[in-house]
Amino acid sequence: MTATKQQEEVVMIDDPRAATLVTVTGWRSRDGRFYGDNEHSARWAGCTHVKCRACGKPTKKLYSACQSCRDKAAEAKYDAMPTAEWDGVAMLYSDSRDEYFGSPEDAEDSLEEGQTLADLKLRICEPKYARPIDYSNWHDQLPSDSNCDAPYWLEDAVDQFNAAISGQPPLSWSPSEVALRIEK
Ligand SMILES: [Zn+2]
User: What is the spatial distance between Cα 85 and Cα 179, in angstroms, rounded to a whole number?
Assistant: First the structure.
């Protein structure tokens, strides 16, 4: 069998066949970028405001709803929360002020004239305790070719650490989805 080697085509860079000039139509955003047929992306890039999904008013494009609709939604969410008594320990968080208080009395002291405790929209906070450690922390450092347990000294150190942090005060508090019950 005689292999006839096919002649490889040669197209020089200045050969008209190498490329031809075409005209394309597409969307260009206000800041000058070309988005092809993606009108939405071009409009998104070029706009500063979008319509509020609730009331339709112009809203900065990072938000899907305007400030007034977001405030209303936050208020409705707060009003729908279950309520509980203060346990005498937990920090309280004010939804309307974005501020923490150590007790209902502290919160009351901060009220401005004509305000009541209800205006602060207080939420009971949850404690965030220091996280205990476990051996998975060193999982990637233990020998991988067997079901090797952590050495005894490491187990001891972990046990000691976990014993030392248990029963300690929380590191921080974060607002829960439970509102402070206020007697009216
Ligand atoms: Zn709105």
Answer: 9
Amino acid present at 139: H
Domain-by-domain residue ranges, the chain?
Answer: 10-47, 48-80, 84-127+168-184, 130-167
CA 109 to CA 120: how far, in whole Å? 12
Q: Which helix (H) or strand (E) holds 106?
A: helix 104-109
Percent of the chain scoring above 90 in pLDDT: 83
pLDDT above 90: residue 180: yes
Q: For 84-125, what is each residue's pLDDT tens digit?
A: 999 999 999 999 899 999 999 999 999 999 999 999 999 999
Rounded Cα distance, 40 and 120, in Å: 41
Report pLDDT digits (tens) over 45-87.
999 999 999 999 999 999 999 999 999 999 999 999 999 999 9
Spatial separation of the C-alpha atoms in residues 41 and 29, rounded to whole Å: 8
DSSP string, 112-139: PTT--GGGG-EEEEEEEPPPP--GGGGT
Q: Ligand 1 centre and the CA of 17: distance in Å?
A: 57
Task: Kindly give the distance from the C-alpha atom of residue 57 to the centroid of ligand 1, in angstroms, as a whole number.
Answer: 6
CA of 70 to the centre of ligand 1 (A): 7
